Amino acid sequence: MNKITSQQDLLAAFNASKNALALRCVSEHDINSKKKDILCCGGTGCHASNSNVMMDNLRQLIKEHGLENDVRVVQTGCFGFCAQGPIVKIMPDNVFYVQVQPEDAKDIVEQHIVNHQLVERLLYVEPMIKERIHDYAKMSFYAKQERIALRNCGLLDPEDISEYIAAEGYQALAKCLFDMKPADVVQEVLNSGICGRGGAGFPTGMKWKIAAGVQADEKYIVCNADEGDPGAFMDRSIMEGDPNSIIEAMAIGGYAIGAQHGLVYIRAEYPLAVNRLQLAINQAREVGLLGKNIMGTNFSFDIDIKLGAGAFVCGEETALIHSMEGMRGEPTTKPPFPANIGGGYWGCSTNVNNVETYASIPVIIRKGAKWYAKIGNWKPELDENGNFVKTISGNAGTKVFALAGQINNVGLVEVPMGTTLREIIYDIGGGIAGGREFKAVQTGGPSGGCITKENLDTPIDYGSLAKIGSMMGSGGMIVLSDKDCMPAMAKFYLGFTKDESCGKCTPCRIGTRRMLEMLEKICDGTATEETLVELEKLANTIRDTALCGLGQTAPNPILSTLRYFKDEYIAHVRDKKCPAGTCSKLYTLKITDACKGCTKCARNCPVGAITGEKKQKHVIDVNKCIKCGACIDGCPFKAIVKE
Amino acid sequence: MCECKLSEGAKAKFAELDAFIDGLGINAKDDRRRGYLIQVLHKAQDIFGYLPREVQKHVADKLVLTEAQVSGVVSFYNYFTTDPKGKYCVNVCLGTACYVKGSEKVLSEIERVLGVKADTVPTADGLFSISALRCVGACGLAPVMVVNGKVYGKVTPAKAVEIINEYKAKG
Amino acid sequence: MSDVTVKINGKQVSVPSGSTILEAAQKLNINIPTLCYCKDLGCGVSNKPASCRICLVEAAGIRPRPVLVPACATPITNDRVEVWTNSQRALNARRTVLELMLSDHPKNCLTCPKNQDCELQKLAAEFGISDIEFKGEVNHFPIDDSSEAIMRDLSKCIMCRRCETVCNKVQTVGTLTGVGRGFSAKVGTASMIPLADTSCTFCGQCVNACPVGAITGISYVKKVWNAINDPTKTVIVSTAPAVRVAVGQEFGFEPGTPITGKLVAGLRALGFDKVFDTDFAADLTIMEEGTELLGRLKSGKNLPILTSCCPGWINFIEHNFPDLLHIPSSCKSPQQMFGAIAKSYYAEKMGIAPKDLIVVSVMPCQAKKYEAARPEFSHDGVRDIDYVVTTRELCKMFREAGVNLANMNDEEYDNPLGESTGAAVIFGVTGGVLEAALRTVKSIVTGKDLVADAINFRAVRGLDGVKEATVEITPDVKVNVAVASGLGNARKVLEMVREDPNRFQAIEIMACPGGCINGGGQPYLHGHRDLLDKRMAGLYLEDANKPRRMSHQNPDIKKLYDEYLGQPGSEKAHHLLHTHYHQK
C-alpha cells in the first residue's frame, strides 16, 4: 500500500481496497457464486480447537482444485459464538458452519466450494426449532445482537490494514482531523452518551473533556487492555479481531485531548492479541496513519505497547500507570487523578479508556453522536443546542457481554443497553445447560454481584444493575444453576481478590483474607450464625474503607449473595448442609440400593475408595473418598448420592 | 556477577539478554528508564525460563536500577517466577467460567497424578510444573488447561490425565 | 493560592486551597489519628500512601454522597467540603481497620523492643481496643539479625512504607522495597536476603521511621551490663557529641538542653569505671584531618577532601561511588580514633591489657555498631570499640538501673580522654565537622588563633540539606566548601564532584538529615522535626560556653602528641588513626 499523506490518499486507498470486502458485504446471497471468501475464526478459542490446521487444510485443498484465484481463505477475528467453534463462514453464500474440525476441510471444499452444496452436518442446529440453519442472522444467538464494538470481528482479516481501510477505517480519524476541532470531537463523544466500558461507567466524553482542559505539552492517551475479570474476554476478542479500530480511536482521542503518545497496556496472558496489535501498529506506521504529520496535518501520534505481568489490580488506572512506569502495580489515592498533572504517566496528564470503549469511538464519529445515542435506553437532558447536560436514566449504545457458566450458548454477545437479562440468557444464550434450573447470573466478576430470577427483567444499564446490588463491570456474565452453591461462589471470588490484592491498604490486605477465612468456615460447616453477622459487618466496612476499586468492590460477591441467598448461608451454618451439594465437607457419598454391582464406579475411583463384588451393592470408604465425583458421573444407575 | 564462573550456556543467555537490552537504547541518566523494566523482565524470563537472583541483579545493573527495585517488581507480578519450571508447564485456568465448569477438580486431579501442588516445585523428574491460571480468555472452551502455550478446551479430570500422559510419553 | 473554607465537626476554618483535611483539622486543634502518614521523614519528604486507613474521616462535598476519605491525603479545593472526624461511620471504620491490623500483628508487646514507644500500641490504647474480633492466619517471618546494627522483624511490619520511603526517597540507598503482594506483602530487601548482604548503609533512618517494632537496633546492652559486672574488666565509656543534647528529653528536660554533666554522673552511676568523651577524639580528628586537608591543598591532589566521621556515609560511598574512594579523608572516625587511643595509649598508661579494657561508646547512631565491628578495627581478635549503645538504649539502661538524670548533679569527665573543645561539640550537627576543621586550619595557616565572632563559620550552619560556601582562609587562599546531610543530598554533591572535580576543596557529609542530632539511635522524634532545631541550638550553646573552641587548643590533645604520637600525620598517627576504604 502506498503511504497515506492526505485525506485524498485515504480515499484512494479505500477505493482501491473496498473490493476486498465485496463478497463479504453483499445483500444478495449466492451459493453458486464462483468467487468466494471463506472466513475462518482465528481467535484464541478457535485456535485452541485447531482452526489454524483446518485453515491450512482448506488452503491446501483449494490449491489442489486450482481454485486459488477465486476462493480466498481469510483468517478473521472472533465471531463470538465460541461454544460452537471453530466457526467458518462462507460468503457471499452466507453459510455458517460450526465446530469445524481440520478433517472437515475436505467436505467443505469438495462439497460446498466445488459442488455448491451445503455440508448439512456442519450447520448449526437452532435449539428452538431443532432445525439446521445456514443463515447466521436467523440464529437466535445473533438475532437480538447489535454488533458495534464487535462490528469488524469475524468480518475482517485483522492482520491486513487494507481490509480495515476497506471497511471505512481511518475515515473517522480523517473526519476529526479535517472537519472537526478537538473540542468538537470531545462534544461529539459526550453527546453520544458512551460511558466507560471497563466497569465504572464514567462518561467517556467527560473524561476527555477533563483531559483536554489540562494545559500541558506532554499528555498520554492509554488503552486499558488489562482485561482481568476472569470470565470476560471481549477485550481480547476485539484486539485479536479488530486491532485497527483501537489504533484509530486512540489517535482520535489523542487529537481530542492533545496527546501525541498512546500506550496500550495489555495482559501478557494474551499473546495472540499482543501480536495482532503490534502487527497493526507496524502497518499503520508503514502507511503513515501513525507517526508524524498524519495525513499531512500537523497532528502527530504514535502508539507503544506495554506488557502487563499478571496482576488484576493493574486494571485500576493508577495501578496501571505505575505498572507502565516499571513499578509494582499499587494504586494511589485520588486525587490526583491521572488527567491531573502529577497524577498520570510520568506525572503527565493521562487519559485512560478501555478497549471496548475505544472500539466504539470510530463508528460514533463516523455515524454521529445522534445515531449512537438512539441505540439503547438512554434518556439524557440536553441544552438548547442539543448538547449533553446530564443523564436522566439508562445508557446509550451497546455493551458486549461474555456469556459463560451453565448456559447453552457460551460466547460473546453485544446487545443494546436496556436489553433485559432474560433476553440475553434465554433468547441469545439459549437457556440453561443440561436442562437445569436457573439460579442466578453473576455480573461484574469479582467486583460484581448476582442477579436472581426476580430481577431477570431488569433492563441492563449501569444504574439499573447497581440498584439491584450488582454491577456491569467489564461484562462478564456467569450463569449459575441450582447445582452452584452461592457461599462457595462468594468464596471463589474472595479467593481471587485475596490473591490479587496488592497488599497496600489494610482493609484489603488483611480484610479480604479475614472474609475468605469466614467463608471457608461457612463452607466447611464450622461457622455459626454469628459468623454471618460478622462477615456482613466486615464486608460493609471494607467496601467503605479500602483504597481502590479492587478493595472497595471485593465484598460485593458476599453482600450480594447474602442479600439474595441468605437461606443458603443459614443452611451451611445452622444445618451444616450445602443445598447445592458443592461443599464437600458438608456431605458424604453413599451408594444406594439402586446399585447393580456393575463395578464401573470402583474402576473409575482414582483413590480406590470403592469396593464390592460383581453384581453386589458396592460400598464407599468415606475415609478414603476424596469426593471427586467421578463415581457419580459414571454411574449408569444414578445409585450414588450425596448425603 | 563473575562472568568466569558461568557455563557457556549461561553466558550465551546473558549475551542474548544484553543484546536485547542494548537494543532498547536506554539512557542511564533518564529517570524514565525504569519504564523498560517489565519488558526486560519478560525477555529475561523467556530466555532463562525463570528469574533467579543473578538474573535480577544483572537486569538491575544493566538498567541502572537497584536490585531491590527489580526484586520488588518481580515479586509483585504473578507472571514472573523465581523458581525453575518443569519442561512442561501445565496451567489450569481457575477463571470463573472454568471454575463453574469444574476446573478445580481438573487441577486437583493433575496435582494428585503428578504428586506436586500447583505453584510450587516441579515434579522430581523435572518434566512438569503446575500452575493455577486466571483466565486465558478462552471461556467458550471451559474448563481449559494450557500446556506450554497450547490450549486444551473442555477438559475433564480424566482427559487431563490423558494429556499429561501424552507429554510423559514424549519425555 | 486562594483560601477555602471547610467545616470540620461543625467548626469553620479557612485554609489555603489544596490543604489536606488533616492540616485543616490541626488548625482547629481537632486530633485525627494517623499511622502511615509522616509529614517529614527528612529533607521534606513526606510519607502519605494513604494506605493504613487509620485517618479516615467522613466528608461531604467531595463525591456526590458523603464518603470516608483519608484525612492525610485528601485536599480541600472547594468551599462545600464538610467533615466529621468522629461520626459513627468514621469511628467504626477506624476501629475495624485497627482491629484488622492487630489481627495480623504479634501480641507480645511486653517483650517487644518498642514496648511503650510504639505508635500502633498507642493507637490501640487510645481506641480502647479490648478484644480483637477477627481471628485467622497471622504472618510469620524469621527475624533478620544478620547485621551488627539493625534488626528486622517483619512479622510486625504494618506496611506503612515509611522505611521504604526514607530508604529510597530521602537516603537514596535503595535497599528496601515492597515485597510480594496481598496478605503477605511486606517491606523487605531484594529477594528477602539478609540486610548484611545488601547495600544497606546502616544509617538507621528506617529504624527512626518505623512506627512499630519491625525495625529496631541490635542491642548490646546486656553485654555491656555483663562487662560492667565482670571484676576482671575495666570498662570505660565515651559519649558522642550529639548524645548530650538528646538524652534530656527522655528525663523531662526541655528538648535540646545539653545536660552533659548529668549524663556523666548518670554513666558513673551505672558503674562504668571511667567516663570519657568522644569529643576528645573529635578534636584529635581535626588535628589529623586538618593536616591532611592542608597537605592536599598544598599538593592540589585528591581534592576535594571528604570528611570520614560518619560510618553510614562511608558505607554509602563504598557501595555507590567506587570511583571516588581516593578522596575521603583517611582519618578514622572519632569513635574509632577513641578506641585506638584507648586500647594503646590509655591502656599502656594505665597498665591494662587491651583485652581487659572494655571500651563502650554511646552513640546517636546505628551504623557505629557496624563500624566498630569492621575487621580493620580489631587486632588479634580485640576490637578497638567493644560495644556501642545508642542514646535510646542508654536511656533504657538508666531506667533499668533507676538512674533519673533529672535528679543527678553535674559531674566532670575523667581524664585524660575527657577533655574537649567547642569545635568537637559541634561534630554532632551538620556543618560542625567542617566548621571545626576550618577553625583550626585557618588558625594554623594564619598563624594566630581566631577570636571573637571570627570563630563562627555561620555559612555552613543550619539544617539545609546542601550548603555551599566560599571561605576565606587568607586573603589569597579561599576554599570552596560544601556540606551535605542525608544520603540523598550526599549523592547530589558527589554527582557534582563527578561533574566538576574542581568545584569544591572540602566537603562534609553526614548520612542522617541534620547530622548526628538526628541519628538512627537518637530518642524518637515522633514527627516533631522541631526537636532537631532545639538539639542543634543546644550544641551551639555548649560550643559557645566552652573555654576553648578550637581543637588544637585542647591541652590533652597536645599532650597526646607530645607523649605518644609525635606530630599530626606522623607514622604512628597514621598507623593508629587512619584507615582505608574498599569498594563494596
Structural class of chain A: alpha/beta
CATH-assigned homologous superfamily of the largest domain in chain A? NADH-ubiquinone oxidoreductase 51kDa subunit
Low-confidence stretches of chain A: none
Tally of helical segments of chain C: 18
Strand order of the largest sheet of chain C: 2-1-5-3-4
Q: Assign an overall shape of chain A.
A: globular
**Oligomeric grouping of the chains:** heterotrimer
Mean pLDDT of chain C: 96
3D architecture notes:
- The complex is a heterotrimer of chains A (643), B (171) and C (584).
- Chain A is an alpha/beta fold.
- Chain A is built from 25 helices and 21 strands.
- Chain A has four domains: 109 residues, Glutaredoxin (3-Layer(aba) Sandwich), CATH 3.40.30.10; 207 residues, Rossmann fold; 178 residues, Ubiquitin-like (UB roll), CATH 3.10.20.600; 55 residues, Alpha-Beta Plaits, CATH 3.30.70.20.
- Helix content of chain A is 38%, strand content 16%.
- In chain A, the strands form seven sheets. Chain A has a five-stranded mixed β-sheet, with helices on both faces.
- The radius of gyration of chain A is 27 Å and the shape is globular.
- With 171 residues, chain B is of the alpha+beta class.
- A four-stranded mixed β-sheet of chain B has the order 2-1-3-4, covered by helices on one side.
- In chain B, a hairpin with a 2-residue loop joins strand 3 and strand 4.
- The model of chain B has no long low-confidence stretch (mean pLDDT 91).
- Chain C has 18 helices and 19 strands.
- Chain C has 584 residues and is α/β, with parallel strands linked by helices.
- Chain C starts with a strand and ends in a 7-residue tail after the last helix.
- Helix content of chain C is 33%, strand content 14%.
- At the A-C interface, helix 18, helix 19 and helix 20 of A face strand 4 and helix 2 of C.
Short recap of the structure:
The complex is a heterotrimer of chains A (643), B (171) and C (584). Chain A is an alpha/beta fold.
